[in-house]
Amino acid sequence: MGMNETPAAQRVHIGFFGKRNAGKSSVVNAVTGQDLAVVSNQKGTTTDPVYKSMELLPLGPVVIMDTPGIDDDGELGLQRVKKSYQVLNKTDMAVLVIDGSQGPSVEDVQLLRRIKEKKIPCLVVMNKEDLLEESGNLQAEKEKTEAALSNDLIIKERIVWVSAVQKTGIYQLKEQLAHLIPAEEEAQRIVGDLLSPSDFVVLVVPIDKAAPKGRLILPQQQTIRDILDSRAAAIVVKDQELETTLKELGKKPRMVITDSQVFAKVSAVTPSEIPLTSFSILFARYKGNLETVIKGVTVLESLKDGDHVLISEGCTHHRQCDDIGSVKIPKWIQTYTKKELVFEFTSGTEFPEDVSRYRLIVHCGGCMLNEREMKYRLSSSSDQQVPITNYGILIAYIQGILKRSLMVFPELPALLEHPLECREDE
Prior knowledge:
It contains 16 helices and 14 strands. By secondary structure, it is an alpha/beta fold. The protein has helices at residues 24-32, 74-87, 106-117, 129-135, 138-149, 170-180, 218-229, 242-249, 263-269, 279-286, 290-297, 324-337, 371-383, 391-398, 402-406, 421-425, and strands at residues 12-18, 50-56, 60-66, 93-99, 122-127, 159-161, 200-204, 233-237, 255-258, 276-278, 308-313, 342-347, 358-363, 388-390. The relative contact order is 0.10. The strands form three sheets. Strands 2-3-1-4-5-6 form a six-stranded mixed sheet, with helices on both faces. The chain has a four-stranded parallel sheet with strand order 8-7-9-10, with helices on both faces. Strands 12-11-13-14 form a four-stranded parallel sheet.
């Protein structure tokens, strides 16, 4: 991803759904003005969700998601349908494409119900309007279809008739999409609300094998940008240079923000009067789940032999031999709890629907997931009463520096009381 692009997690995610041969991919291509999706007359050409980041006027930066047909059959087909339904978890706006010459099917109605349950703004696109025109009873068919759909499933104003082949109705479809976006609330800042102009912040960034060559990872880029937007200064150092930098600065930084993996080392060389926190903790707060993940981490105290722990990553980056998720975190948990635990791993969109067998879920910071997907994972855990925490919180807790890491936030006094106290005193 280029430094000038809006990160995928901050773009509006628009999911296109529909039966095979409803013309879903043709509608996607007509909307985007490019051949993003594979189109053919053969049923079920789209076998995996296709993602494309783009600027879609009048909406701005979006991710368009084209999904497999919701009526696919056979064992493989059912897996594809499941993938389509999983895409709903990261969908900010849903577009259901129906073959207008056939009318809504059982599968269409089922999907609409699920979209409604998840409270996702939705637009129904009736495609193949040209075939109805040829048959000569366009108006009567339109009225019949709209009556069938607007029976509690969707309001009439959210049904758009198009012909992907003749490109009619596409402009109206884009305009309708623009109106679906909820008004933006005041955006939560990553760290900017804690800074004043002319403050400076020291960022500790270990350059390890997992860091992309020549680049910083996304949370680091976004944090630097937020600091600059606050008219404050960012000083970026590797962990080996931190001690010397702090001595040579001559002025106390407003705070030090570190990568979680070097937390203990950084805490040891950062004087106690300088506030210290981590990218992981800042992002848990930014995504609105800090309280949940702090409560979740205390379950480490009550884990028993044989308990299952799920370690879940939001992206599918190449695993290194000493990867944080698959190697370091299980090792740290085993050492801390002194219990024989069963670890399971998921990455990317493979978050299980049923998490009830786990005693604890440890999630990555979720920088590649949009807010809806992250909230889905949190609420899914909460509904099934499974505690969830994240990498950075867990590392800080195990190393006895979580309390110090939370002192940065004025809004968290209640969370600083027991049971986090005990770790500090040992």
